[in-house]
Description:
Blueprint: E1 4-9, H1 17-33, E2 38-43, H2 45-48, H3 56-73, E3 81-84, H4 90-98, H5 104-109, H6 111-119, H7 128-131, H8 133-143, E4 148-150, H9 156-173, E5 181-183, H10 216-224, H11 245-253, H12 256-262, H13 269-278, H14 283-308, H15 312-341, H16 349-362
Helix pairs in contact: 3-14, 4-8, 4-15, 8-9, 10-14, 11-14
Amino acid sequence: MEKIILTGDRPTGKLHLGHYVGSLKRRVELQNSGLYDKIFIMIADAQALTDNADNPEKVRQNIIEVALDYLSVGLDPTKSTIFIQSQVAELCELAFYYMNLVTVSRLQRNPTVKTEIKMRNFEANIPVGFFCYPISQAADITAFKATTVPVGEDQAPMIEQTREIVNRFNHIYGETLVEPNILLPDNAACLRLPGTDGKAKMSKSLGNCIYLSDTEADVQKKVKSMFTDPTHLKVSDPGKLEGNAVFTYLDAFSRDEHFAEFLPEYANLQELKDHYTRGGLGDMKVKMFLNSILQEELNPIRARRKELEKDIEEIYRILKKGSDEARQVAAQTLADVRSAMKINYFDDAELIKEQAAKYKNAD
């Protein structure tokens, strides 16, 4: 069996450091590892419209932003198929068939759906498209026969629901779909990077993001204002690491070599943490160290983005080519599904022959 990856993002804004450590950086590593036969990366515009139906221009304008972020971090269209979800119509048909395999109560129990509904204040006014988002995601994953889905831990319930749909379909109709496995980030700090304000999730709507496309000055300003330990009022005060966003970011980004380059009085992160917790280390010094690390990480990404922005037409050509390739693959899976469900009437020569004989004999 081929080893295939499917992953993607909703185009509701530019991508930020949470996306980067949670999935983007890993995608580039996986793309360049040579361990996978195919990699599909989806810009999930149809999914984004499930809670932005009244603002399609927001989704439309952010297609290019996400594509630029993808290419600037190192995703390579010669190694990965980058495509736009809405341009692969087969995904909608697959989702429609899968709806018969999932109950309303099962969707209501999905922890990710419950969290997202609460976060958006949908309450009783839940758009059906948004409510069925796990089914749509199952269609996306199975359309490309993905064996691996790299996501953050908050998406684990969605992958579990996909596995349930695959198993139910194969049980009823025969072995047709491929059951995917989840691939979580290696670094625990990367599972869910907090916002700069210390809130659990970095979110565009909360305004607590550091974007991959932020200028050097923007990043420095945001780092300087990051949430630390509110009880750490004086340099001499012992500081707390738990809930301290700056140290969570250091867990995610710092390496021992960063200390030799930017903060040579410490050998590693543990020494820095020990000093902070016993007192005598100011927040601003730690923040400036983090800023140096982030600038080093983001500088090449910003430079690539600036070059890519010079030829937007080429970015759309890449997306068109990727979408055409993705549609060919999804069309084959859909054909397999139709055949398994016995709704491939015009392609089933045996059915036509059998029924022709049946009614001929009846005469």
